[in-house]
Amino acid sequence: TTPDDFAAVDTYLIEKLVPEDAALAETRRSSAETVTPGIDVTPNMGAFLGLLVQITGATRVLEFGTLAGYSSIWMARAMDDDGAVVTLDIDPAAAQVARRNFHAAGVADRVQLRIGPALDSAKALIAEGAGPFDLVFIDADKANNPHYLEASLTLSHPGTVIVIDNVVRSGAVLEDESADPDIHGIRTLMTHIQADQRLSATALQTVGLKGWDGFLLARVN
Ligand code: SAM
């Protein structure tokens, strides 16, 4: 088995189970107009997030890292009309593209996008008393993951589900002396969660169109 085999199986699973409509396909394409193109979740991960929203009955979702709005749209579409996604991104170009995509996908009325460093936006949400959120998806700059987790805990309630993407990074998570701030952020996050009685957590590795990676799933006790 090679990375190509994993990608081919992903393509098959997506074709069979999670076909995209025009709005989702355009959202993925339009990440080319942002500062960090092509780093949205795969369609099967998008569908997984949507299913999580439905399984948990989440009506308030917080997302760190919007890009072109791909994962936001999957989660927003999984909600009833009274649901809301608050999504945070630092890139104004991404925000402009994402807003366009939210309109095309029919979810503009239930997605609130805040532009700026996500930690500042999260602090503002805390100051506004905006929580609690039922589900949090952390998918922005990995270096800040420990801070995003801490803010998420402040904005959560018992039962809140927290998903953190890209925690394996082709195995680089094992590099304890890595100079990469993203790896440092992920390893610090793991150590925090290990010691944090407020959370029950697991992490699963993934292979496919995005190579070898994985996500962490946690529940606030
Ligand atoms: N969740 C999106 C999806 O699956 O469609 C993908 C998000 S992408 C992996 C990461 C995003 O985080 C980028 O759009 C980038 O602009 C944003 N980002 C990077 N650093 C940030 C920061 N300090 N504050 C907020 N957003 C940041």
UniProtKB/TrEMBL annotation:
<keyword id="KW-0949">S-adenosyl-L-methionine</keyword>
<dbReference type="InterPro" id="IPR029063">
    <property type="entry name" value="SAM-dependent_MTases_sf"/>
</dbReference>
<protein>
    <submittedName>
        <fullName>Putative O-methyltransferase YrrM</fullName>
    </submittedName>
</protein>
<dbReference type="GO" id="GO:0008757">
    <property type="term" value="F:S-adenosylmethionine-dependent methyltransferase activity"/>
</dbReference>
<dbReference type="InterPro" id="IPR050362">
    <property type="entry name" value="Cation-dep_OMT"/>
</dbReference>
<dbReference type="GO" id="GO:0032259">
    <property type="term" value="P:methylation"/>
</dbReference>
<dbReference type="InterPro" id="IPR002935">
    <property type="entry name" value="SAM_O-MeTrfase"/>
</dbReference>
<keyword id="KW-0489">Methyltransferase</keyword>
<dbReference type="Pfam" id="PF01596">
    <property type="entry name" value="Methyltransf_3"/>
</dbReference>
<keyword id="KW-0808">Transferase</keyword>
<dbReference type="GO" id="GO:0008171">
    <property type="term" value="F:O-methyltransferase activity"/>
</dbReference>
